[in-house]
């Protein structure tokens, strides 16, 4: 008897074959149809599928599929950013983006998670790495939840930043609070210490090696005690986005993991940059030094039901 997991994998591989043979991944009827089918397939409620334990050929297909998804997502955002920029007030028309509702839900989820772990006041400076041509998360957070925070949006693509900047230029509030930096985040060092919160987009680092390199860089240069919000994927959704494992977060204390089960695709992890090691005299042993390292809180891993 064929199990549900095998059927799902067969469907994903079939869709990969169709997508990989397309002439373009820019928005059009066939592209939209195939990626919609792929997303719906990967939203399967099969909870136990572990993509890291799949056959080698399926692992290779998954890696290639994530790259294709990233390329298609970039084209989609660029396409709609151009359309939005043609309006006098682009931010009044964000709902024309097909996945705008998903971003609203994801942003609310991330803000609620963030709110549970903010130790001081509302963050003054937030960085979003991989903001792209349509920086919806930054826009939604800045508008609805963090109305006094300054958002520093980083993207390696100057055209993406140019398009994103056009969207908020007509808004006097956001044009003052949303800044765009064209830079590879691996070249950003001391500036990272200015941010109380850093968001890392799901498609920044398309494989484990790239993602870990970025996380290690953030762990080296972020301010002690600052929060890192990461997007990951769980179960079959890991055919669409890279997975961030808690063991990848060296230098961070993992606080919470959330796995949505509705149309929000990304899992969300939040971690805190370790404070410096505390050195105290050991009263029991004369002048010897005791080393106290921060202990990980119990990781709260929750599934958010629809």
UniProtKB/TrEMBL annotation:
Give one GO biological process term: nicotianamine biosynthetic process
- Select a single GO molecular function from the record's annotations and give it: nicotianamine synthase activity
Protein species of origin: Cicer arietinum
Entry keyword Isomerase: no
Pfam name, any one? NAS
Name the record gives this protein: Nicotianamine synthase
Q: Which family does it belong to?
A: Belongs to the nicotianamine synthase (NAS)-like family.
EC number(s): the record gives: 2.5.1.43
Q: Which InterPro entries match?
A: Nicotian_synth, SAM-dependent_MTases_sf
Arranged from A to Z, the UniProt key words for this protein are: S-adenosyl-L-methionine, Transferase
- Signal peptide residues on this chain, from the entry's feature table: none
The entry's function note states: Synthesizes nicotianamine, a polyamine which serves as a sensor for the physiological iron status within the plant, and/or might be involved in the transport of iron.
Q: Which reaction does it catalyse?
A: 3 S-adenosyl-L-methionine = nicotianamine + 3 S-methyl-5'-thioadenosine + 3 H(+)
